[in-house]
Amino acid sequence: MSHHEHGSTLPENRTLHPLAPLGWNTRTAEAFDALADAHELRPARVTEARRGSVGVAMPEAATADLSPRVRKAAETDRSTSPTSGDWVALRRSGDSWTVEAVLERSGTLVRQGVAKDSHDQVLAANIDGVLICEAADQGPNVGRLERFLSLAWASGAAPVVAVTKSELAGERLPEVIELVEAVTMGPDVYAVSAHTGDGLAELTERLLPGRTWVLLGTSGAGKSSLLNALAGHEVMDTGAIRHDRRGRHTTTHRRLVPMPGGSLFLDIPGVRRIDVPGGEEGVDRTFSDINALVDLCRFRDCSHRNEPGCAVNRAVDEGELDASRLERWFRLRREAEWNRTRNDVRLRTERKREWKKLTRQGRESARHKRGGL
């Protein structure tokens, strides 16, 4: 399945199923129908993750508490906790709803845990596209853009880049677009202005009905203004940004925002720290130009430093590859590898801790049995 086919929605589903405007598709329907007690449950989409509960749409808005089973699973692995964009199965009890199961996810945007013992955080689930916002008047910051692209490719969703606030770049706009396109390696780039409307029509054509997108960008990249412009009315507050005493952006809400053409946007907080997920796919897709050169190296285990016959270094020497881009590739590959091994170590540690706990419980159980004889 190609990235553009990801999360496809059958036309008949859009007209027949009441959840079609929320992105309901064949894959989701099959996952729900596979539940043992599906006939007693009701599907819904998570619009907002809260502590111990979630905001859902089905299509009416409601709040649902997490069942003990879902809560316990989240205590073991926080990434399983329902998050924005998830499809869940709800059970009704009187006037309240309970989340009984989280359906299998397709595209997930994951923020890497920072500390050695911290867990990864799923920022958004079941996404088909990632719209990366890079403000024209602030750069572009190519290193940051490469990190966002790696994060997007790792999610399984197709990235698209919007160079926002294009009216503020003036005569520099062609240069900004050229710099952005030099590092995107495939994803489409759109110069857009929420203020003048430039580029919005072209970008809107990419927002197909039933597809879910997530906005990615640092605070100040113009995400809320762009979302309002695409929606045709104010759906996000673009007033004075609230800050805490450290001057940090304090918005933490997440919402599922429907667009006029039938697509959906998951609004998530501005991501301040961008850690590359463990695994190579995200970085490899972002640096596809370098990976194409790697295949041409004389030695299969070439480190691309000083070996003879290195196609990567030859490209740098001949001016075909920017040396700073190569160094950023080295850095992100090291970071991805470290995060992968860190996750492996943490998994082994958690399994060992669980094994010790079960062993201790077994000994206590045996002791009680002996005492009762």
Automatic annotation (TrEMBL):
Cofactor note: Binds 1 zinc ion per subunit.
Binding-site residues for GTP, renumbered to this chain: 217-225
Example of a GO cellular component annotation carried by this entry: cytoplasm
Biological process (GO), any one: ribosomal small subunit biogenesis
Amino-acid positions noted as binding Zn(2+) in the UniProt annotation, renumbered to this chain: 297, 302, 304, 310
GO molecular function, one term: metal ion binding
Matching InterPro entries: P-loop_NTPase, Ribosome_biogen_GTPase_RsgA, RsgA_GTPase_dom
Protein EC: 3.6.1.-
Keywords: Cytoplasm, GTP-binding, Hydrolase, Metal-binding, Nucleotide-binding, Ribosome biogenesis, RNA-binding, rRNA-binding, Zinc
Annotated compartments: Cytoplasm
Cofactor(s) demanded: Zn(2+)
Residue ranges occupied by any EngC GTPase domain in the UniProt entry: 125-272
TM annotation in the entry: none
Region of interest (Disordered), ranges: 48-87
Subunit field text: Monomer. Associates with 30S ribosomal subunit, binds 16S rRNA.
Family, as annotated: Belongs to the TRAFAC class YlqF/YawG GTPase family. RsgA subfamily.
Designated name of the protein: Small ribosomal subunit biogenesis GTPase RsgA
Organism: Nocardiopsis alba (strain ATCC BAA-2165 / BE74)
Gene that this polypeptide is encoded by: rsgA
